[in-house]
Specification:
The protein has helices at residues 2-8, 45-50, 60-63. The protein is an all-alpha fold.
Length: 66
């Protein structure tokens, strides 16, 4: 998975999780729930282009890991 993660990290994310800065009364931190066989249901290509994200070199099964 680390190999897939390194490819995913090169997509072009410019992510700032502002929700994590909210007071604790407004949010709860939860660990992700692992799933046995993740799959990509839909990818909005036009939105990803608009956001400057490049998924062209990323396999669909790796996108499902996000």
């Amino acid at each position: 998975m680390s190999k897939a993660f390194s490819k995913i990290s090169k997509i072009g994310w410019r992510f700032d999780n502002t929700y994590s800065k909210l007071p604790h009364t407004m949010m709860s931190r939860l660990a992700p729930v692992p799933v046995k066989k993740p799959e990509l249901v839909i990818l909005n290509h036009s939105l990803s282009e608009e956001l400057g994200l490049d998924f062209s070199n990323t396999k669909e099964e790796n996108l499902a890991l996000i």
